């Protein structure tokens, strides 16, 4: 046994660690003391994994040299060559020729799968689905649980992904989100490209290191932001004329056009200083690789429900061609940056409200080798479930699906019912900054006079930091006094509310009580048990 392979004696819960890289190897912790589990939960992403026994690591990042013994519940000793060379050269030797570069790859004995997805329980298999429900809905229940594995850890799905647009959540620290149970964060490539610059994040060691977030990260391509700059009401610019599809009369008064689309990419001006920039699929891939998120999205053209069918077809074909270019550039950059952890690439499904366009987009992108898929575009709430279902029916079952941008708690169940694995949303923090908070019986505004002498928490059943330390009366006082920490405390609660809601759905799918769980929440929150499916 070489020095690098010789484990150092550890405690009962930590059998050993590498003598050179100082990484700890741990076993299944299902028998660990509850106090030890609790200590690990605080400030780290490891929560449900501990309780279920699917425990991967006890540090903030997994050792790149660890091997997982399938089904054995224990890490073997470190196999990284730690005895010679710099850390970067060791990492390059370890990862450079790895067979695990995308979903479905087979790991070499000495490597850790960089990205994978495995689903566990599906409602459509019959577990927990009453026959009457199946008949009423044509067997269209696609809710499922699974695990996404990334270089920065695992995501138990379905999962809510909080939004940290500029590598920061509005008014909330990353440490707070980790403590409240967030598994991953989503940032925006467009904003980070403009400030501080993707090269800065690359130099810092990537998004997770830059923002001190220990878990997995996503970046969207910035396409939404770039395209929506085209007119005052967020309409997409016509590729040939540079005009709003609805005409200049639909632009906001005095709004300066800031983006122009052509077949190669988009010209746009920075909202910060007016500088002219060019985004192409290749530029988007380079920017996102530099940012270093675990999961990236391909550059696509955003359209709106107001665009004509003819324009939707043109835009969809452009998105298809851009997707091919993104895949090609992604592969090139992955080889060029082989010393870096693998970054997964998701294709984005567009097609507006047209079933044939949505299904065709799914078929086109399914053959391009994407690691997963994002469902994008402007969607009316009444059509959300139907459009999402078109997509999840067509896309490969063994790939994760992400719904880009939802708005309300009931949208969560619409997404889960129709086979979505992850989804992001800015609403919890956005409404919190306006003093609105979620509760099991609905949303309410903390500035209401009836809370002036209400010395109870926002919710008696919520375990978040805010509810365990502060009262409605105090929070109302903070908002009325325009104290900045009012937004912080309200945001922490709202994020925890949604995170717990999704965690409950995840557990209910696994134990066969999903419909009871869903209907109880909808009935309490909205007064109806009919989700928008």
UniProtKB/TrEMBL annotation:
Region (Disordered): 70-111
GO cellular component, as recorded: cytosol
Domain tRNA-guanine(15) transglycosylase-like: 142-525
Sequence positions that bind Zn(2+): 462, 464, 467, 493
Keywords: Glycosyltransferase, Metal-binding, Queuosine biosynthesis, Transferase, tRNA processing, Zinc
GO MF terms held by the record: metal ion binding; tRNA-guanosine(34) queuine transglycosylase activity
GO biological process: tRNA queuosine(34) biosynthetic process
Active site (record annotation): 220 (proton acceptor), 424 (nucleophile)
InterPro entries listed in its UniProt record: ArchSynthase1/Queuine_TRR, TGT, TGT-like_sf, tRNA_ribo_trans-like
Cofactor requirements of the protein: Zn(2+)
SUPFAM superfamilies with a match to the protein in the record: tRNA-guanine transglycosylase
Keyword Ligase tagged: no
UniProt cofactor note: Binds 1 zinc ion per subunit.
Pathway involvement of the protein, from the record: tRNA modification; tRNA-queuosine biosynthesis
KW tRNA processing (keyword) present: yes
Quaternary data: Homodimer. Within each dimer, one monomer is responsible for RNA recognition and catalysis, while the other monomer binds to the replacement base PreQ1.
Name used for this protein in its record: Queuine tRNA-ribosyltransferase
Organism encoding this protein: Kocuria varians (Micrococcus varians)
Gene responsible for this protein: tgt
